[in-house]
Backbone:
């Protein structure tokens, strides 16, 4: 279970559990499989573009 299911739904994340062996196994698989890595890298990020703080700062400067 995750509090961020949208990442799973879009394919930018994968739920692998908390076990360190599982995390290492899935990480190695991702790094060793170019098509899998490309698919995850190309998926649309549902969390935005990562520039919200810049947009907020620009809007605050505009308002001042």
Residues:
């Amino acid at each position: 279970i995750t509090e961020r299911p949208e990442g799973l739904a879009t394919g930018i994340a994968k739920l692998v559990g908390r076990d360190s062996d599982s995390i290492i196994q899935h990480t190695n698989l991702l790094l060793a499989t170019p098509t899998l890595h490309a698919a995850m890298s190309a998926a649309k990020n549902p969390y935005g573009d990562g520039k919200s703080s810049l947009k907020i700062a620009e809007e605050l400067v505009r308002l001042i």
